[in-house]
């Protein structure tokens, strides 16, 4: 698997980012090149139609009928088109959403509403680089359109520009405080008590969410309320060292074959072996491990992933003490699966728990290396790394408790608080830019030299896999009796695809008999089409650098470098 010289990953288009940096809240917007034009924006009026009301109350079939009837009277109307598009996307009818938007846009190519709608569909289709171009075009026409600012925020967040995304959310909320999608993003920026109050209001009104999303939001609300009753400070490093080398622990398929690798972790001085899984979030352990460690339920939740058996009952708990190699952490959240083991192991350790470190997964030498992240130019002092155990956290916010922040000695230029934007250190300019949604690391890969599809980088996936739909575009597929299991149980329909060459970052790998299965719930939950996983069989041959904070990765392959068994 020799590396290639060119990097194939298209990052969020540079004109979009340059244009964003020229925006000052509601006052200016970049029009055309680097020049800015002052604009005055009006707050959107809140007057939902009958079709809107049906959508807000999650009656998608009725909303579809009403929108289509109105479009018969007013063909290609932008507001009606985007309404119908949103219904289709909620129903996971992405092709229908694309069709209705492109039909209207052909008749009205200068509509900011329709260009924004196209950007939303392109994002959902897994082509955010195209969505960025659509957002650019819409901004030149109407920088005051609230849903456009929401789309900007999603694109910026995807590329690790968290501070810039937060500003776009503030703008969107100022322009349309009633839009449910904007409100949902905005309430995540609020302090705990205000967030609880706003989330309660949000859940009591129509928001257009399906039953599964509402259930997840209620679990989240319960967690926030429990935090108010029983506050927990952020998980913190108590060891003197901020670097570590942790040996991999072999996890066996049988007496003679290694299935994958894990890390030995101690929860309250009780041992567990957790599988290294970049596709998992945080620390996920079995009920047996939690009981032996004396972990008590904090709040209830559910977990899902690969598999056809639905989400599994789980709960959040807090471990007083966690030891990983030479590092020790206190007061850290873990997720406990209530029944059975976790993917045939004690549990999973998502690498996002180390997102405050610079991570090296050295598979050839079977070791994990942790080091401090590069210091940003505006940091008053190096940030002390710790475990990031907030489930799916991806905003790079400074999570120091207020009393800690106030006790720090004053400096002429204090380190900024809150979300921060990506920083690319000089020594990391050659790293690959990747996308991030929560804990998931995503990268476009070209298949047999065709257009790129979005894949999740997942060391917990036993193999590189592909969706049947993506596979059919480049090769033939065949039914298979391969047994594929994940957090959500066994996968119902599994196929194999003939030879496919995957090209991502600086890597090219030809794979025969690629395992193929659909992952619609993962794509739905990410709001982005995922065409498969770059899995263990590819990644375990490399040394992989990960900078979660800044959305950067490095892939090194050396066929002459590898683990030497002790004599």
Layout of helices and strands, plus pairs?
Blueprint lengths: L13 H8 L6 E3 L5 E3 L11 H7 L3 H14 L4 H13 L3 H14 L4 H13 L3 H14 L4 H13 L3 H14 L4 H8 L4 H13 L6 H19 L6 E2 L6 E4 L1 E6 L2 E11 L2 E7 L6 E4 H6 L4 E7 L8 E13 L2 E11 L9 E3 L7 E6 L4 E6 L29 H6 L24 E2 L1 E3 L2 E8 L4 E6 L7 E2 L1 H5 L4 E3 L5 E2 L2 E2 L4 E3 L2 E5 L2 E5 L2 E3 L3 H7 L5 E3 L1 H4 L3 E5 L4 E5 L11
Parallel strand pairs: 7-12, 8-11, 18-27, 19-26
Antiparallel strand pairs: 1-2, 3-11, 4-14, 5-6, 6-7, 6-10, 8-12, 9-10, 10-11, 13-14, 13-28, 15-29, 16-17, 17-18, 17-24, 19-27, 20-23, 21-22, 23-26, 24-25, 28-29
Helix pairs in contact: 2-3, 3-4, 4-5, 4-6, 5-6, 6-7, 6-8, 7-8, 8-9, 9-10, 10-11, 11-12
């Amino acid at each position: 698997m020799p590396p290639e010289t060119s990097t194939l990953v298209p990052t969020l288009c540079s004109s979009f980012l340059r244009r964003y940096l020229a925006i000052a809240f509601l006052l200016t917007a970049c029009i055309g090149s680097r020049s800015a034009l002052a604009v005055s924006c009006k707050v959107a009026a809140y007057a939902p139609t009958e079709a809107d009301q049906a959508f807000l109350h999650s009656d998608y079939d009725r909303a579809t009928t009403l929108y289509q009837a109105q479009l018969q009277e007013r063909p290609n109307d932008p507001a009606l088109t985007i309404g119908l598009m949103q219904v289709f996307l909620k129903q996971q009818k992405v092709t229908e959403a694309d069709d209705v938007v492109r039909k209207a846009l052909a008749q009205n190519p200068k509509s900011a509403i329709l260009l924004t709608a196209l950007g939303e569909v392109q994002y959902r289709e897994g082509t955010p680089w195209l969505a960025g171009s659509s957002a650019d075009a819409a901004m030149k026409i109407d920088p005051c359109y609230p849903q456009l600012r929401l789309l900007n925020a999603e694109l910026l967040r995807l590329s690790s520009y968290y501070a810039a995304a937060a500003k776009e959310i503030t703008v969107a909320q100022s322009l349309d405080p009633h839009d449910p999608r904007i409100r949902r993003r905005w309430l995540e920026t609020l302090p705990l008590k205000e967030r609880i109050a706003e989330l309660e209001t949000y859940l009591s009104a129509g928001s257009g969410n399906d039953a599964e999303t509402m259930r997840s939001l209620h679990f989240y609300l319960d967690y926030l309320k429990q935090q108010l009753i029983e506050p927990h400070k952020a998980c913190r490093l108590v060891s003197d060292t901020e670097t570590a080398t942790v040996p991999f622990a072999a996890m066996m398929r049988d007496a003679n074959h290694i299935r994958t690798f894990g890390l030995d972790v101690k929860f309250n001085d009780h041992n567990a072996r957790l599988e290294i899984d970049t596709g998992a979030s945080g620390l996920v352990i079995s009920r047996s491990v939690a009981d032996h460690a004396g972990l008590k339920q904090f709040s209830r939740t559910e977990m899902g992933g690969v598999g056809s058996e639905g989400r599994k009952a789980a709960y959040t708990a807090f471990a007083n003490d966690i030891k990983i190699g030479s590092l020790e952490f206190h007061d850290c959240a873990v997720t406990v699966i209530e029944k059975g083991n976790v993917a045939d192991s004690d549990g999973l350790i998502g690498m996002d728990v180390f997102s405050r470190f610079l991570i090296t997964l050295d598979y050839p030498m079977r070791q994990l290396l942790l080091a401090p992240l590069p210091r940003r130019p505006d940091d008053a002092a190096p940030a002390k790394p710790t475990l990031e155990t907030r489930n799916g956290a991806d905003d790079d916010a400074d999570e120091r408790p207020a009393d800690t922040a106030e006790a720090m000695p004053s400096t002429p230029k204090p380190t900024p608080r809150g979300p921060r934007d990506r920083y690319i250190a000089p020594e990391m300019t050659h790293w690959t830019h990747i996308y991030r949604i929560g804990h998931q690391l995503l990268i476009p890969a070209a298949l047999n030299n065709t257009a790129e599809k979005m894949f999740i980088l997942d060391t917990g996936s036993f193999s590189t896999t592909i969706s049947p739909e993506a596979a059919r575009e480049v090769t033939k597929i065949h039914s298979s009796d391969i047994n594929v299991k994940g957090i959500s149980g066994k996968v119902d329909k599994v196929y194999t695809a003939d030879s496919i060459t995957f090209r991502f970052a600086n890597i090219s790998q030809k794979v025969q008999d690629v395992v193929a299965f659909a992952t619609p719930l993962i794509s739905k939950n990410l709001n982005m089409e995922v065409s498969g996983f770059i899995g263990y069989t590819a990644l375990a041959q490399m040394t992989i650098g990960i900078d979660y904070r800044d959305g950067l990765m490095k892939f090194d392959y050396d066929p002459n470098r590898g683990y030497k068994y002790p004599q």
